[in-house]
Structures are given as C-alpha cells and as structure tokens.
Amino acid sequence: xxxxxxxxxxxxxxxxxxxxxxxxxxxxxxxxxxxxxxxxxxxxxxxxxxxxxxxxxxxxxxxxxxxxxxxxxxxxxxxxxxxxxxxxxxxxxxxxxxxxxxxxxxxxxxxxxxxxxxxxxxxxxxxxxxxxxxxxxxxxxxxxxxxxxxxxxxxxxxxxxxxxxxxxxxxxxxxxxxxxxxxxxxxxxxxxxxxxxxxxxxxxxxxxxxxxxxxxxxxxxxxxxxxxxxxxxxxxxxxxxxxxxxxxxxxxxxxxxxxxxxxxxxxxxxxxxxxxxxxxxxxxxxxxxxxxxxxxxxxxxxxxxxxxxxxxxxxxxxxxxxxx
Length: 324
Hints:
Blueprint: E1 2-8, H1 16-22, E2 27-33, H2 40-47, E3 52-55, H3 62-65, E4 73-76, H4 86-91, E5 95-97, H5 104-119, H6 122-130, E6 150-154, H7 158-169, E7 173-177, H8 183-188, E8 192-193, H9 196-202, E9 205-208, H10 222-225, E10 233-236, H11 245-254, E11 259-262, E12 283-285, H12 294-312
Parallel strand pairs: 1-2, 1-3, 3-4, 4-5, 6-7, 6-9, 7-8, 9-10, 10-11, 11-12
C-alpha cells in the first residue's frame, strides 16, 4: 500500500499510530499543499503515484480527482468530509471514508466550558485580576444563576445529545431543533424538539451542533439573530460556516446577544490582527480545539488508517464510515 498523507505546508502531523497499525503492509509519505497560491497541477502530479490518500482540510476537487488514476480510497481524518468532492470521487471509482465518531465527549465538554465561562464572566474577572490587579467581584454584577435557564441546541445528533445530557446535569431546561431527527429519540432523553423560531425565541443559551453543507451555510444570519428574544449567549463548536460571521459581529454590536463562545470561524486560518471578534470581553475564541484530547487524537488516527486498510483489502463492511 502506497499512501499519501496530504496536509497543508507548515502543518506537522504525527504518524506513529498510523504506521504502527499499518506495519509492513505499506508506506506513508507526506504530500504538502500551500494554502496560498498552491499549484493544482503540482498537487495532481505529487498525488499521482499513490493508491490511497489520508487528508483532512486540503480540498480535493473534481479537477484533481478526475486525474488521479491510481487512487482507490481517500480516508478523511475527520468527521466532516466537505473538503472532498465525494460525487466526483465516486465517478472516478474512489471510495471516500470518514470518521463516524471519535471526539463527542471532548466537543460536548468544550461547549459546556464555553457556556459556563460566558455565564460566569470569566474573561472579565480574569482581565481585572491579571491586567488591572484588582480583586473586585462587582465588575460583573449581571450574572444570572445557570440552573433553571433554557438551552436551545441546534442539531441534536450525537454531540448535541451529549451536550443535552451535560446541560440537564446543571439543571438547565433543554430544547432542540433538528428537522432530521425522529422526535422519539429526543423524548427519551427528556428533550423537546421544537420549531426553529420557538427555540430561538425561548433560549437563554444557543448551542450550535449542526452538520453544514451547501444547503445551510450561513444558517444563523441577522434575521435569525433578531428572533432571539432573550438575548442569549451563543456557543458554536460545530462549523464556522454555520454562522454568517459579519451578521454575528453586527448582532454583538447591537446587543442582540449577550456574548459568544466560538471555536470555529469561517476560515481555518483567520487573520486575527484587526479581526472584529477579537478583543471583546463578551466573546471567547478558541482555535478549533473542541475536538482535542490525547485520547480523541489516538482514535482519529486509528480509525482513519483502519478505514483505508479495510477498503484496500476489500473489507468495506468493516469500515467505520463510507460516505460515497
């Protein structure tokens, strides 16, 4: 097995887990692509010798895939696979795999961490102590008790349900919006599925856990923010594209929400200097690390390489997730 580990230039990746599982069955070599000004022609040439590709965020478009004559499988080292044109891959006879689940616990924990930090005004208190050297509880007099508030979860899949479980332990009332989920699944967890406008209007916290594709990019826009009657806190540990970013900035400026905890922006490599979400006392930004723990990264690597091996060995029934 001749495998390419495709990544952006300057981003390192440890392959110890993959190599250990692969053993003597094959080799893995790095192929890099420049985020700015990368040559598509060079990338196609670089990938041409490989029968398998491991990737995450580097786009594999129809133009690229149509010219990969040796590739049999692309294993995406993530749960999302929008970086790969799965239809074009299928037309070329390339199987695309992704990870069904590997970091549910971490992402749910991170969502709750952001929510609690916003509720308890930790940014404000930390700034006053660290920068102003003041020991003053009164700098944030508007803190409300968390217990008894309502959290509205947008997207009640595995991660949304894990957030709901944690939220209920804090005494929060949990409601959710998910047009694709049978209501019986939510009801078994004591969660009520509601229409979107009702969730937006009744929630003290909005937590976003939606899958994002071309049909719902920019799902939370200014019109939807205006429907948030209780000026909620917003948490997004899903996809940056779920929120219309300029509209979020406008919403914060106008005070339509109390604050935001954001792990994902519209780009994976944002320019932070002068960014309109940076430097606000009511906005917590983390660099897309909700998924991360040593445990989750082990399972990410393990599932990714096992998917690839199973496809090449003809064991498609053993793959974790085939998406095309």
